[in-house]
Design goal:
alpha+beta, PH-domain like, 7-stranded antiparallel beta sheet, 35% strand
């Protein structure tokens, strides 16, 4: 009987692991589908992680002529570019937490709140061309190029 209990525990652990892998893959598929949906109307579309506190939330990030959208299967949000006070590209999060050598942060500030998106450096370079860094008072408002 102890062998049956051991096999059962191992089976439950494997099942939990496989379930987690399945959910992660499904979430990536859903973000990919959202990216394809936006690709027709957007100037640029990328996969990024929206950072909220200690949590990283995978999102599809897209830029149109007047708005920036970030969305996944649980979240649909956007910014009007004219409402952004500051656009910044950085090597670390506002909290000082490092993000890794291969990533950059797109940091948006609007009405005193910061919104951070982590993406790989190649995608961040494309975003920096499409949505240049902007500081409050340097231009009338943020603009997509």
């Amino acid at each position: 009987m102890p062998e049956l209990a051991t096999v059962t525990v191992i089976g439950v652990i494997v099942l939990v692991g496989l379930t987690m892998v399945f959910l992660k893959l499904r979430q990536n598929d859903q973000v990919g589908a959202l990216m394809e949906k936006r690709r027709a109307t957007a100037k640029i579309v990328s996969r990024a992680d929206y950072v909220e506190g200690a949590e990283k939330i995978p999102v599809a990030l897209s830029l149109t002529a007047d708005s920036l959208y970030y969305e996944n299967h649980d979240l649909e949000a956007s910014f009007e570019l004219s409402r952004l006070d500051e656009i910044e590209y950085a090597e670390d999060l506002a909290t000082g937490r490092e993000i890794g050598e291969s990533c950059r942060v797109l940091r948006l500030r609007s009405h005193g709140a910061a919104f951070e998106f982590v993406m790989d450096k190649a995608e961040a370079a494309k975003w920096a061309v499409a949505l240049p860094a902007h500081t409050y008072g340097s231009q009338p408002s943020a603009q997509a190029v």
